[in-house]
Each structure stands twice: as structure tokens, then as C-alpha cells.
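C-alpha cells incoming
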């Protein structure tokens, strides 16, 4: 293995977190100018370091935010505040001002739709919009203002309205006349959909937006579909697809758009939005949307079905649950907890995602006994190329259909196999980095940053720590590790479950949820505070801002002496609102290798190497702008039977490992990510062959190069060379039964990336 070197001049290498905070405080003491621009920061840091003063986590965040609120030279606090609803702003201000207790200020708080979705809704309210049903076409969008702004109705979701117009004065008929005059094609499209809905009830509606800009959550994919359609029923989806067929257009779906990959739609075509606007509008300042969104769109609909259905699960005692593709993880979580009978055994952490969105790119959870979310699918209901509703429930064909990236058609419902409700025994810990996941055996002691070394760590303790890590990784129900850049501690979130419901608590509580919101608000303030850049230059400490970010983040994460018992879905979604902090993210799935002593059991040498290679890479760049500003995260999980899953064939399990950064580090991220990925892809098995490590489909890979060429070329020519042919073969077999071909899929449901990856010879 290659040995790592560090760069002189970086305080990270030699100083732990508290020592680096001391350097920041000392630097502020000797520079009046920067100290005045950050009022109260030196006092906060000195008190935090003092053995005679206890600064609690909530107080640290409160006083840190107060620094930026009171700064006369930085406006990040106010800018972040302006993006919130009036209720959120009021709570944040009371928290920072210490006007009320945390209990009082969090009373009645409910985590709202993310900032990114608010921006998306803002875009939608600024373009022409029609509601289509069997009874007619009604205008909901409005012509541009006289100043040429495209924010036609002037509604801003934060309550501010710089281009406000009298929307009440614009009648539906006059606006419809304007749209007909300005864009006859749009008008004709809407009436075509209306005619297609004539054989259905009035409740089958479609909202249609014209030329609404699309941007994914990661801000790496953007295009403008000609039509963005929001249906509330299967019939609505069918009519959209039939229109696309008749007019030779393509259709792709999107929900919360939480991805970094080019898996969305095409320029000038049709995007179907499965975004849950019923959830998005349940907050105070969103009442303005009622002027542009019809009543039916603000309630659950046919595409948000949640019901136990009859059938034979593969495991006795389990249940089959039919779920609409628009259903959010939050709706699913609440349904499971309320009924307290069945639960999904795994899921992604984020609640603001649709079931269709987590299924399409084959997302996963944690725990070596668990495969991917797509492996739970027992039936797929979808609208095909011809607008027909079809079903796939053959287990062999589901290996393609249950993880098909939307290429087979518009999935309307999925039936998943749930387990009886169980209860997580959560006991998160903060453990010294060296002990949480000990370095690989061939890593020299001098390669470990002095800041992370433990003087009293004996060989016996090291062996015990390795054994503990391997035991938990092998047998734990849920296994996850976090390391924030330059932190001395790891946050370890590994737990098991019980079937005993006694003593179950709701987690997170209202107070905990609100503090999660505060910690995310703090993160956004820190990453947008320009005065921190001045601090970095003045004190010659590149990692100063990252040190504060990591300290605040670790401060916000819990660590308990005794386990807390909570519902399994609550534990799986232990962090709420993480989507409010925009990040960049690369993740790979590394196959676990067989142990030399017992080939039926995994060896964790490569896992430990991957973990520490990432940590050392972070330290090596600490005086180069600190491109990694968010955590290194790792989960141990199972393999997969889904053909295109990156975990497929990993019979002993998978190491899902990722590095993240904040949006503010975008300009320096890709070269750094390529360096880390290059190390992760370099590992070899006992025969000297490269391990078949592949990226998570929903994360960043499209703009990444490996071995001097685009990563996507390696994926196509090496990583999935066999699998993509099997995938196409199974899809063709489904198509033969349902009356379509792969050529039809390319026309109707593909995009530029999938054309090149799957359909280049069709």
C-alpha cells in the first residue's frame, strides 16, 4: 500500500480539536480587527476550553449564532434567516436571543419541507400553469409582470414578494386567453390531455407547467422540460404517457430531486413530478400557494397509497404493503409508527424522499443482514410506453424491474415486504478515532496524525478494539460510523433490535428535532459566512472554519450512557432535516473480502484501509483549502440480487463508504474526490485482481475521472459490462409480455446518459 505524507504548516496534523480552537481564540486575541468583526467568538471559545466553565451543546450553538447575528461585517445569519418561514424565523430568533427556554421555543415545532424544495416550488410559481381535468382546462399561472420578470405571480415562499402583483385580479378565463394567445402549443397540449381524460371522473387531474426550470438537489443537473406535469392519479399518468407517445416525446420522473447523478429528464421534453405538494404546503407561509395550487393538489391522492394487501410474503409472519410512488418516507414512517404492526427493515436516513425516488436508483440502508430497498420489492405497477397499466411480480423479472431507473416506464405503485414491528435499542457513542475503527495492520504508526494518536493504547487494547469493530460490523442490525474532518472522535451509531415494545419512546422528541433544525441552520450560516474566509487568511489557519463546523456538528450529535428504545422506523430516520444543508457526495460500494482463516466470513482489512485512507487524505489537504468539510461516513450492509445494484455479487456483504463536503467547497471538490476515489478503487483481492468497487447510482460519479478517464466509461466497459446485458435481456422479456421493445423504452423513458449507457446499439 502507498504510504501517506503530511504537509508541514497544518495545525490539524499536530493539534487536536480543542488545541486548534485554542489557536483560533489566541489569534482573535491578537487581532483587534477580526475580533470586532466576530463579536463574542473569542469569549465563547475561551469558555468552551476552560475547565472551570461548562458550555452545553445548545449554548454553544446559541452563542455561535449570536456572533454572526451581531456582526456588522457579515450577513450570512440574516441571509439564512430570510430563507425560513415566519414561524421558523421567530423560533430561531427567540432561541438565539435566549428569550425562551428550549422547551418553549420548540413547542409545536414540526420539521418542514426543505429549503431546496421551497426553491423548486418558487420556480414553479413563476411560470405559466394549467389545471387539466375531464371537465375542462383552467389557468393557474399568470403572465409575466410588466418589468419582464418571470416571477409572474410574485409569490415568494419566505413571505417576501419583490415582484408582487395583484393575483386576485387575474381571473382564470383572462389568464387562459393570455396563455392561448402567447403559447398556442401549450394550450393545445392541455386540451389534448383534457380530451384523453373524458372517460374518467373529475378527480383525475393534471397540473401542467410550461418551461419550468429543473435543477436537481445537488445542483449538478439542470435543464428545462417543455412540460412539467403533476398528476394525482394513475389515469393522469397514463394520459401524459399517451400524449408523449403520440407526439414522439420522452418522459422522465422526479420527486424531491435528491441526487447528484444524470438520471432525470431531457431538455424540451416532459417531466412528471411526483413531489408531494400535500406535504410541502403544510407550513404557515405556504398558504400563499393556495392562489396557484388547486385544493385537490394539497391532499393525499392515489399515488400516495399506503395499505397492507393480501398475498404470500417470502418470510412467514411478514406482510405485503402497497405503496404509491409519491409516498414520502415521512408519510411511511408515521404510518408504521401509528399502526405499530409492521415496518420496513431498512431505509435511507432522509425522510424527505419519495418511495419511487429511493427505489429507482437502488438506495440502501445499513446492516450486513440487509440488502437494498429494491430487494424488498415484490410487485411493480407501472405505466408502459403505450400508456397501459402493467404489473411485474415474477421474482426473476423483478431483479430488473425493481431497480430499473425509471427506464421501464412510470412506476405508480410498489409492493414491499415488511417485517413485524421491532424496536431499536439506540446507544450512539463518541469514540476516539483510533479505537472506533483501528487502522489497517500495514499502516505505520508515524502515518497516523499525532492529533489522533493515543499514548496509552496498548497492543491488547488495539486487538480488543479490532475484535469489537468486526463483531459489530458482522452481526449488528444497524451499523454506521461518522467522522467529521479533523475531529478527535468518531460518532458510532450501531444498534440491535428487540420485539419487546415496553418502554418505547418517540425519537427524536420535539426538542431534539428542533435542535437538529438549529444545528443545520448553524451549518448554513458557517458555510456562507464570508468573514470566516477573512479569519482563515488572517490567522493562516486553513482549517479554522472546518474546525468550527466539525465541532458544532459533533456537539449536536447525541451520545448516551444507556440505550433508548424507539420504533424501528424512527431509529432508521434518526436525523431530520439533513436535506436543508446542501452538500456534494461521492459513495462507493466495496465488496467485503473473505477471511483467510474462514472464507465464509468477511475480512475487514480492506474496510479499515478505506476508512483510514479517507481520513489521511483529508489531513493531507488541510492546508489546501480543506475541500472535505462534511463527514466521512461508512455503513456495512449486505449484497443484492438486483441486477444493476452496485452490491450485486457481494455475498459476504458490502462496505458503503462516502465522503461529503459543503456547497461552499464546490470549486475544489472534484479533484479531491477523484483522489479519494482513486485510492478506494485501487484495492485488490488475494489473487491480485482489482476488487469490483462501484459507485452508488444516486451519488456523484458522472463528472469524476478514474485512471485518467471518465468513471462512467469504466462503469460501462468493466464494472457493469455483463450486468447491463442481463438487465436489457430481462427488460426485453418483460416487454415481450407487455407489448413493447427496448427501442420503445429508448424513445419514451430514456435520457441522454441512459441512451449512451444502455441503448447505444439500439
Amino acid at each position: 500500500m502507498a504510504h501517506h505524507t503530511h504537509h508541514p504548516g497544518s495545525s490539524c496534523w499536530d493539534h487536536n480539536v480543542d488545541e486548534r480552537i485554542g489557536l483560533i481564540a489566541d489569534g482573535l486575541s491578537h487581532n483587534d480587527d477580526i475580533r470586532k468583526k466576530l463579536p463574542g467568538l473569542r469569549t465563547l471559545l475561551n469558555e468552551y476550553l476552560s475547565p472551570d466553565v461548562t458550555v452545553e451543546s445548545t449554548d454553544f450553538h446559541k452563542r455561535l449564532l449570536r456572533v454572526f447575528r451581531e456582526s456588522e461585517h457579515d450577513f450570512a445569519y440574516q441571509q439564512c434567516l430570510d430563507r425560513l418561514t415566519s414561524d421558523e424565523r421567530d423560533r430561531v430568533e427567540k432561541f438565539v436571543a435566549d428569550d425562551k427556554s428550549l422547551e418553549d421555543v420548540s413547542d409545536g415545532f414540526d420539521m418542514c419541507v426543505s429549503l431546496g424544495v421551497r426553491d423548486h416550488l418558487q420556480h414553479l410559481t413563476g411560470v405559466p400553469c394549467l389545471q387539466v381535468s375531464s371537465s375542462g382546462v383552467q389557468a393557474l399561472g399568470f403572465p409575466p409582470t410588466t418589468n419582464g420578470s418571470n416571477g409572474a405571480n410574485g409569490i415568494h415562499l419566505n413571505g417576501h414578494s419583490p415582484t408582487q402583483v395583484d393575483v386576485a385580479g387575474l381571473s382564470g378565463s383572462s389568464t387562459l386567453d393570455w396563455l392561448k394567445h402567447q403559447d398556442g402549443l401549450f394550450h393545445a397540449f392541455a386540451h389534448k390531455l383534457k380530451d384523453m381524460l373524458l372517460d374518467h371522473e373529475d378527480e383525475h387531474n393534471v397540473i401542467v407547467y410550461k418551461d419550468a426550470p429543473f435543477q436537481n438537489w445537488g445542483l449538478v443537473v439542470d435543464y428545462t422540460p417543455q412540460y412539467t406535469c403533476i398528476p394525482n392519479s394513475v389515469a393522469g399518468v397514463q394520459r401524459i404517457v399517451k400524449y408523449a407517445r403520440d407526439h414522439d416525446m420522452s418522459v422522465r420522473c422526479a420527486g424531491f430531486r435528491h441526487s447528484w447523478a444524470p438520471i432525470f429528464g431531457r431538455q424540451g421534453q416532459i417531466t412528471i413530478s411526483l413531489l408531494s405538494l400535500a406535504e410541502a404546503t403544510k407550513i404557515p407561509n405556504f398558504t400563499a400557494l393556495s392562489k396557484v395550487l388547486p385544493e385537490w393538489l394539497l391532499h393525499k391522492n392515489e399515488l400516495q397509497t399506503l395499505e397492507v394487501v393480501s398475498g404470500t410474503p417470502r418470510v412467514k409472519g411478514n406482510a405485503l404493503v402497497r405503496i404509491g410512488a409519491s409516498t414520502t418516507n415521512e408519510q411511511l414512517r408515521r404510518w408504521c409508527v401509528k399502526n405499530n404492526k409492521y415496518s420496513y427493515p431498512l431505509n435511507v436516513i432522509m425522510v424527505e424522499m419519495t418511495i419511487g425516488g429511493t427505489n429507482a436508483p437502488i438506495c440502501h440502508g445499513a446492516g450486513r443482514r440487509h440488502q437494498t430497498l429494491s430487494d424488498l420489492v415484490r410487485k411493480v405497477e407501472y405505466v408502459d410506453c403505450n400508456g397501459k397499466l402493467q404489473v411485474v411480480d415474477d421474482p426473476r423479472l423483478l431483479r430488473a424491474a425493481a431497480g430499473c431507473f425509471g427506464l421501464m416506464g412510470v412506476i405508480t405503485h410498489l409492493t414491499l415486504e415488511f417485517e413485524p414491528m421491532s424496536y431499536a435499542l439506540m446507544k450512539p457513542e463518541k469514540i476516539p478515532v483510533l479505537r472506533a475503527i483501528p487502522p489497517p495492520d500495514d499502516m505505520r504508526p508515524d502515518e497516523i496524525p499525532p492529533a489522533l494518536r493515543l499514548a496509552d493504547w496498548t497492543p491488547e487494547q488495539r486487538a480488543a478494539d479490532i475484535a469489537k469493530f468486526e463483531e459489530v460490523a458482522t452481526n449488528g442490525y444497524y451499523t454506521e460510523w461518522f467522522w467529521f474532518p479533523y475531529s478527535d472522535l468518531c460518532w458510532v451509531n450501531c444498534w440491535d433490535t428487540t420485539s419487546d415494545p415496553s418502554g418505547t419512546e418517540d425519537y427524536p422528541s420535539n426538542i431534539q428535532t428542533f435542535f437538529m433544525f438549529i444545528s443545520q441552520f448553524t451549518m448554513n450560516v458557517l458555510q456562507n459566512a464570508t468573514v470566516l474566509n477573512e479569519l482563515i487568511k488572517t490567522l493562516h489557519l486553513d482549517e479554522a472554519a472546518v474546525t468550527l463546523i466539525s465541532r458544532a456538528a459533533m456537539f449536536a450529535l447525541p451520545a448516551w450512557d444507556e440505550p433508548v428504545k424507539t420504533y424501528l422506523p424512527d431509529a432508521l430516520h434518526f436525523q431530520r432535516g439533513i436535506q436543508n444543508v446542501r452538500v456534494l457526495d461521492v459513495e462507493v460500494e466495496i465488496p467485503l473480502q473473505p477471511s483467510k482463516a474462514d472464507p465464509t466470513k468477511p475480512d475487514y482489512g480492506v474496510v479499515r484501509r478505506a476508512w483510514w485512507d479517507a481520513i489521511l487524505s483529508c489531513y493531507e489537504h488541510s492546508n489546501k483549502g480543506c475541500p472535505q468539510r462534511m463527514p466521512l461516513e461508512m455503513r456495512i450492509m449486505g449484497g443484492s440480487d438486483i441486477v444493476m445494484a452496485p452490491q450485486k455479487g457481494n455475498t459476504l456483504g458490502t462496505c458503503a463508504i462516502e465522503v461529503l463536503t459543503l456547497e461552499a467547497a464546490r470549486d475544489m471538490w472534484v479533484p479531491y474526490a477523484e483522489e479519494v476515489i482513486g485510492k478506494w478503487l485501487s484495492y485488490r483481492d488475494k489473487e491480485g485482481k482489482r476488487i469490483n468497487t462501484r459507485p452508488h447510482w444516486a451519488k456523484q460519479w458522472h463528472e469524476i475521472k478514474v485512471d485518467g478517464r471518465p468513471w462512467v466509461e469504466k462503469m460501462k466497459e468493466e464494472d457493469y459490462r455483463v450486468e447491463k446485458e442481463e438487465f436489457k435481456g430481462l427488460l426485453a422479456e418483460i416487454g415481450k409480455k407487455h407489448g413493447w421493445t427496448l427501442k420503445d423504452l429508448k424513445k419514451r423513458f430514456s435520457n441522454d446518459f441512459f441512451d449512451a449507457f444502455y441503448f447505444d446499439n439500439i
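note: The CA atoms of residues 282 and 452 lie 46 Å apart.
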